[in-house]
Structure formats: C-alpha cells, structure tokens
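User: Okay, second chain of the day. Same drill as before: sequence in, structure tokens out.
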Amino acid sequence: MNEQQVNSPGEIPTEAAKNITNQTVFPILFAISFSHLLNDTIQSLIPAIYPIVKDSFSLTFAQIGLITLTFQMSASLFQPFVGLYTDRKPQPYSLAVGMGFTLIGLLLLSQAPNFAMLIVSVAFVGIGSSIFHPEASRMASMASGGRRGMAQSVFQVGGNAGSSIGPLLAALIIVPYGQSNIIWFSLLALLAILILVNVGGWYKLKIKTRAHKAAVSHAVQTLPRRKIILSVVILLVLIFSKYFYLASMSSYYTFYMMHKFGVSVQSSQVYLFIFLFSVAAGTLIGGPLGDKFGRKYVIWGSILGVAPFTLMLPHANLFWTAVLTVPIGVILASAFSAILVYAQELIPGKVGMISGLFFGFAFGMGGVGSALLGALADRTSIEYVYSICAFLPLIGLITGFLPDIGKKVS
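Assistant: Same drill. Structure tokens below.
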C-alpha cells in the first residue's frame, strides 16, 4: 500500500498505532536474536572446516582464500540491494527463504566432491546471510517499541554468540568425523526456518496494521543532502576502522599469542574465547547506552575510547595482554548498534537499505582486512601487524563531524 494514502476504515488509527509501537515485543526480539545465533553459527562453520577441505582436496592457500572471498562477497554485496527492495516491498517470509538458501548450501557443502562445488556451496550460504540480515534488522527495529539501540544490541548479540559457538561445534562434530557430518547442522537451519515462519506471520500483521509508520515518523530529519551523505561516509569509515581491527583479533590473535608468548594451541583458543566473550558483552551494552545518552556519544566512546588499550596491547606481557583484550572487546563492539541506529535515523524510512549497506560493508571489511593483514604478516611479522592496527581506533576522531540527531529514549 502506498505510504501517502490515508488510513482506511479497516486500519488502526494513528494514536492506536503509536500505542502498539511503544510496546517492546520481546518475544519477537528474542526469536530474531536466536535465529541470528543459528545463522551465524552456520556461517562460522566455513572457516572452521578449512583444515579438513585443504587436506582432502589438496587445496592451496590461494584456493582457501577464494572460498573466503566467495562467501564474503555473496554475503555482503547483495545486502544493500535486498534491503532497498524490501524497503519498497516488505517480504514477511523472506527470512525463512534466506535460511532456505543456507540450508541448501549446507547440504551441498556436506557432500561436495570437488573445489568447484565447495565454491557453489559457500555462495548459497552467503546469499542466505545477505537475505537474512537486512530484514532481520528491520524486524528488530519494528519490535523495539522505540528502544531501537537496545533492540539492535539484542539482535547483534545473537550473531556474536553464534560466531563463537560455531568453531566449538565444528571441533566436536566435524573435525573428528569428517566433512559429511556438516549435514547435521542442517537441523539448525530447519529450526531457524520454523522460527522465522512464525516471526514472518507477526511481521505480516504489522504491515497490515501499518503500525510501523509510527516507528519511522519520529525520526524524520531535515538535514541537507550533502550533510547526510558526509555523515554516512564518516560512519562507513568508522566501520572500516572497527572491522579491520576486529579482523586482526579474530583471524590472527591465536597466532600472535603462540608466536609472541609461546602458549599452546589450546591456551591460545582460551584467550580468543575471552576476547570473543567480551565482544558479545560489548554488543549487548552499546545499544541501550545509545538509547539513554545519545548515539553519537556512544560512537565517540566506543571507537575512540578503545585507543589507549589497543596502543598498550603490543607492549604488554602475557597477563596484561589477556586483561587488555577485555576492555578492547567490550568498548569496540559497543559501537556497531549505535552506528547502525544512527544511520537509520539519519535516513528514515530506509531501514532495510541502511541495514544491508552497513552489515554488507562490515562483512566485506572483515574479509578484506583479514586478507590484507595476512599478507602484511607474511611480509613482516604478526607482532608488526598488531603494532600498526593499534592506531586504527584513532580514526574515530572524525566522529566529531557527525551532527547531533535522534532523541534519547528514557
């Protein structure tokens, strides 16, 4: 239905719609967050099985890199276009459809007989992810009751938890018993489809009542177009600094700990878990703080506030390295929810497109960052990589150019 049309007699009046929108729908938020956990658990299986497929198919590191590139690009490039399309034509059951692509990818991956089929398999998983994230972020916003930062944090923490759980499940189920056991994870995809079909029913009802109009009407801005474009560019640069640093930690932290301090593989995994747990905690904290104090202040504190800890990390001993990764993970991860909601408020009515753009750019930066930092480590050393990355948060100084928008939520 055209947004310019007035309410028909069968629709809920504006005041009633506002009353509906002001209620945070926690069952929907938790369902979306849990689905995000399942989605990202499945995603994280791909790098976890690299040692298996490298040996079984005699792959080179370049071919492993191509697998990563295929997944990252399919998971990131489509997201803005999916979001733009669903902004115009909401698709209540698109999340379930996206998870269907992921299910197909898993089934193909479990039986892939050669490198070409591996590429096709991870592309299906990536496409499923690209469909999932923009609409799931929109549903979280619709269920927020105005507490959009909190809602995005709840949504995001599910994904971060899934990313940390996936490698552990792969170590227990896939590594000891082989590639074919990936098929067991199709049960997670089926569970997610069941949940998302029910969430889609709720979303369809919200579209019919048009209560979602109240959720975006409060955020309409009158900023000049040039200032909006500049603000979006600044936010994307901040995402660049955040995800390049996170790529250095998630991809190479275990190697850093083993090379610099001589810890065992098992011990390095424990240190990595400490960091990932801190990231999950930071994700949950950032959104509510943005609701209470304003997004811009949380972005300031998160992106720039982490700099003292990152600058100290390359010079710390083993004990203090472990300690420093906790505030680094918490503070740095708190930024994403605030950045995403800030961008959604900057361009109201385009929740799907903005979510797709920022999720897609974040995924892309993670993949590019991992590749570039790996090449830098090969040419120099892993310690040098961390010395250089320590300065990335200082890019957060450009936050000062962002305008003050949005309203605090009590």
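Residues 1-21, 214-220 have pLDDT under 50 and may be disordered.

User: Thanks, on to the next one.
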